[in-house]
Write a structure and sequence with these properties.
Layout (H helix, E strand, L loop, with lengths): L6 E6 L5 H9 L17 E7 L2 E7 L9 H16 L2 E7 L6 H11 L4 E7 L23 E3 L8 H11 L20 H4 L17 E6 L6 H9 L17 E7 L2 E7 L12 H15 L2 E7 L6 H12 L3 E7 L8 H11 L8 E3 L8 H16 L4 H14 L12 E8 L4 E6 L7 H14 L8 E5 L8 H7 L1
Parallel strand pairs: 1-3, 1-4, 4-5, 5-6, 7-9, 7-10, 10-11, 11-12, 14-15
Antiparallel strand pairs: 2-3, 8-9, 13-14
InterPro entries: G_ENGA, GTP-bd, GTPase_Der, KH_dom-like, KH_dom-like_a/b, P-loop_NTPase, Small_GTP-bd
Organism: Halarcobacter ebronensis
GO biological process, one term: ribosome biogenesis
């Protein structure tokens, strides 16, 4: 995300249509939209394009004057968000008359001396345009007052035109005419290259994108705040506070890390409406992530739901760390709890386990360091000569099986993909190689190289075989 882009903040009371406008501008369903007041509780950021001009949209929680634990935090964060923004869109419900709360909030925003627009939503037809007159009492200039209907897509063009005027035009960048390399990628298999230059990968490809996942109220938001070093995500003792995922990017040891604080997951039977969509968004985030923090509550018993959520991480083949939060509240020894976790999550045997306390900050720096280490393992490419020497040693220690008298031979091995590492064994009869021998080779690789925290995929192929079989595709997905 480009920090030099101008930021646009959406501010307003709950249920005025901010999330719908956010989605309209973003041109996809990013924000969670619901008729339930107060659905949006955190600040979300998304790069958008408005009439060929780029900006960062900040969507905030609805501001509501209550003593509720969540919304008192939301109001504070919304005002902080407005201070950070260059342009403020203050949104109100056009089907209601202006109230003192709206005016008070508007004047508070006006005092920030930012580009400010008053957006009156739910003006669904021409007859309802008369309602705009009552909003002139805010003291807003006519050029900065917009009557729109997001649901009917009325009046939005004028608003977008106004926003675009506030944004700088794009810089013209000359496009390079680079032809795609159409060579068979198995040429690398037939003519192994020792040192592969990965400098051409974009910086974005080298970004740590971390999905924080776990069942409801295990402390995911608290861990995010502890990792980032300041309160970014709304924290509450109320279960399910975080509904939308919240992206937060910062630098640590010269590495760019983006955390995704995912929505709390409930048992399937309890997922209704808004939280069902939140579960879908969690899966979308996992698709974009390359690392996962599986957060477990060390003060509570592990349940089947923990295992199902962990299965999502395994399904998307992410680099993984298992985080035991609230460790200070647990009286068992770490070794005893570690045994329980290992027994429950056998499929994540490669993931390190770190006990932390988001409340006291215990082991948080260690967790940051481990994230970088796991990402380096996840994205590493083993030189072909080293890989082949290791595989050769493994076959000498434990000979290839001879199923039904068939002689199996591995010609050579090569890593053809990273994130996660994927290795091809070029051999004479790949379909006869049993999965147990693949598992042996994977474990041998782990013993001799640092693959902590990352899954490893091994596939067997004939010479010249180009495409993955259906079984191999299933194995990867």
């Amino acid at each position: 995300m480009n920090n030099e882009l101008k930021k646009i903040a959406l501010i307003g009371q709950p249920n005025v249509g901010k999330s719908s406008l956010f989605n309209r501008i973003a041109k996809k369903r990013i924000a969670i939209v619901s008729d339930m007041a107060g659905t949006t509780r955190d600040i979300r950021k998304h790069q958008v394009e408005i009439l060929d001009r780029d900006a960062i949209m900040l969507d905030t929680g609805g501001i509501d004057e209550t003593n509720d634990e969540i919304f008192s935090n939301v109001k504070r964060k919304a005002i902080e968000c407005a201070k950070e923004a260059d342009i403020i869109l203050f949104m109100v419900d056009g089907k209601k008359i202006p109230d003192d709360k709206d005016k008070e909030l508007f004047y508070e925003l006006q005092a920030l001396n930012k580009k400010l627009a008053l957006v009156v939503n739910k003006i669904d037809n021409d007859n309802e345009l008369e309602r705009l007159w009552s909003f002139y009492e805010f003291g807003i200039d006519e050029d900065n007052l917009f009557g729109i209907s997001v649901s009917h897509n009325r009046g939005t063009k004028k608003l977008f035109d106004w926003i675009a005027v506030q944004l700088p035009p794009r810089e013209v960048v000359e496009e390079l005419n680079i032809e795609d390399d159409e060579d068979d990628f198995l040429e690398d298999f037939l003519n192994p290259i020792e040192d592969i230059n990965e400098q051409a990968e974009s910086e974005e490809d080298d970004e740590l994108r971390v999905a924080i996942i776990g069942r409801v109220n295990v402390g995911k938001s608290s861990i995010l705040n502890a990792l980032v070093g300041e309160e970014r995500s709304v924290v509450s003792s109320v279960e399910g506070t975080t509904i939308d995922p919240v992206d937060e990017t910062f630098e640590y040891n010269d590495r760019k890390i983006t955390f995704v604080d995912t929505a709390g997951l409930r048992r399937r039977g309890k997922i209704e409406g808004i939280e069902k969509f939140a579960l879908m968004r969690t899966k979308e985030m996992l698709e974009k992530a390359n690392l996962a923090l599986l957060v477990l509550d060390a003060s509570r018993e592990l349940v089947d739901l923990d295992e199902k959520i962990a299965g999502l991480v395994d399904e998307y083949a992410l680099g993984t760390i298992i985080v035991l939060n609230k460790w200070d509240e647990n009286m068992d020894t770490f070794q005893a709890l570690e045994e329980k976790v290992r027994s429950k999550f056998k499929f994540l045997y490669y993931a390190p386990i770190i006990a932390v306390s988001a409340k006291t900050g215990r082991s948080i720096d260690r967790l940051k360091d481990k994230l970088i280490e796991i990402y380096d393992n996840y994205s590493q490419r083993i030189p072909t000569s080293v890989l082949n020497k290791t595989i050769e040693t493994a076959t000498m220690r434990h000979a290839l099986p001879s199923p039904s008298g068939n002689y199996l031979r591995i010609y050579y091995a090569t890593q053809f993909e990273t994130k996660p590492p994927r290795i091809a064994l070029i051999m004479n009869k790949p379909n006869l190689l049993h999965f147990s021998y693949k598992r042996y080779l994977i474990n041998f690789l782990r013993e001799n190289m640092n693959f902590e925290g990352t899954p490893i995929h091994i596939i067997a192929r004939k010479k010249g075989q180009r495409d993955l079989s259906d079984e191999e595709l299933e194995e990867f997905n």
